[in-house]
Design brief:
Length: 193
């Protein structure tokens, strides 16, 4: 029987970003009533979630990644503010990523390339972010995220987007970990304006 892998395409972050995100987590944790803190090694920004895929599908995914990478120049985006997605079992708290035109174009190009190869991609709007806490709830006395963002003096660090990474999501006895399966560098030349 063929083994399937649970996969997604994402951007990775460097050690400076991780330190910034860990500090944001620490500040957020002080106001949490409950929540699962995302481990530092799992910080990433998803561009396309693909779910369970077999070996044949993996070849088509890599083909789509190459197609997008050869026509996408390296670019910068920036960290944004803390935000949240609300769910019945608890909220997801995240660090937003600035939706630059280059980032939106990259996500759209990837969705298009994958779609032409038979993959159905989520239809909900793309909201670039890095998850910090899952299934969370703020303390009743918390000032809330708006106040945290106003009081925080965390730098809006630049993020160099220079590659696409295909990750496998692996469940083990200790939680979920993400293993990189393939790295595709962005190789198009930057357009001079």
């Amino acid at each position: 029987m063929e083994t399937e892998k649970r996969v997604f395409i994402a951007m990775e972050l460097n050690s400076v970003h991780r330190e910034n995100l860990k500090e944001s987590q620490r500040r957020l944790a002080k106001d949490l009533e409950k929540g699962h803190i995302v481990p530092e090694e799992n910080f990433h920004m998803t561009l396309a979630f693909l779910g369970e895929q077999n070996a044949d599908a993996m070849h088509r995914i890599l083909d789509a990644m190459v197609e997008v990478a050869v026509k996408t120049p390296i670019f910068l985006t920036y960290m944004g503010n803390l935000g949240e997605f609300s769910f019945p079992k608890g909220d997801t708290y995240f660090m937003g990523i600035r939706s630059t035109k280059e980032l939106l174009l990259l996500e759209e190009s990837l969705k298009d390339a994958l779609g032409r190869r038979g993959f159905s991609i989520e239809e909900r709007p793309f909201h670039p972010h890095i998850t910090l806490v899952k299934k969370g709830k703020l303390l009743p006395q918390s000032e809330g995220l708006v106040s945290m963002n106003e009081k925080s003096h965390m730098p809006k660090l630049p993020i160099l987007v220079d590659k696409l990474i295909l990750f496998e999501s692996i469940e083990d006895g200790e939680g979920t970990r993400y293993e990189p399966l393939h790295v595709e560098p962005l190789v198009a030349k930057r357009q001079e304006v």
